[in-house]
């Protein structure tokens, strides 16, 4: 998944197929899972209960929940919290331990998460590359004309570039939600720079949300293009009180 990483110990169940942690300054933990090997007994065996709201959900949704919670638990063992069970607030946002900033994402058969004790806003996202037709149909909703021109100038298929832009803006939303608790649409953040070789991007907000998160704030992100997947990570200093 990443050029430099260390593996995570796998459970005996074939449900989790592979897992690891990147060796970056702010590590990203990841796992690949197979929903066909999901079964209800795993929730009890791993002490990761399935919420009542998901009891009647389709297998895909239950598998995503179990894999992401397993990944969180494995990653938080490195923070001295080996038995942490992630729950959600009424607005469905994750309830992380005090003093830890984190973010979680999953798509199809992959889950990723990033966590730190540093005073940072953190947003991580993973996406499956969209089809060319989908990229063309949604371009007007996802990007400004200037952004589209920047993407077309990059040495990558437009569908991959559009997915990357979508993922970067998802990471912005996830990083800022705990501070703002305000919904954002895709045109309220703009990608200014995209360095495909270095896997780095710079974004800015297109409106002032508060006295700290304004159009003057530049947001820095990393990204990884792994086969048909796109992973993005955005971090930004937390507002000083």
From TrEMBL:
Annotated metabolic or biological route of this protein: Siderophore biosynthesis; enterobactin biosynthesis
InterPro entries attached to this UniProt entry: 4-PPantetheinyl_Trfase_dom (IPR008278), 4-PPantetheinyl_Trfase_dom_sf (IPR037143), 4PPT_N (IPR041354), Enbac_synth_compD-like (IPR003542)
Keywords assigned: Enterobactin biosynthesis, Transferase
Reaction equation(s) it catalyzes: apo-[peptidyl-carrier protein] + CoA = holo-[peptidyl-carrier protein] + adenosine 3',5'-bisphosphate + H(+); apo-[aryl-carrier protein] + CoA = holo-[aryl-carrier protein] + adenosine 3',5'-bisphosphate + H(+)
Gene Ontology MF term list: transferase activity
This protein's record includes keyword tRNA processing: no
Domain 4'-phosphopantetheinyl transferase N-terminal, residue spans: 54-115
Domain 4'-phosphopantetheinyl transferase: from-to ranges: 122-208
Superkingdom field: Bacteria
Biological role stated in the UniProt entry: Involved in the biosynthesis of the siderophore enterobactin (enterochelin), which is a macrocyclic trimeric lactone of N-(2,3-dihydroxybenzoyl)-serine. The serine trilactone serves as a scaffolding for the three catechol functionalities that provide hexadentate coordination for the tightly ligated iron(2+) atoms.
Assembly and oligomerization: EntB, EntD, EntE, and EntF form a multienzyme complex called enterobactin synthase.
Family affiliation: Belongs to the P-Pant transferase superfamily. EntD family.
Name this protein carries in UniProt: Enterobactin synthase component D
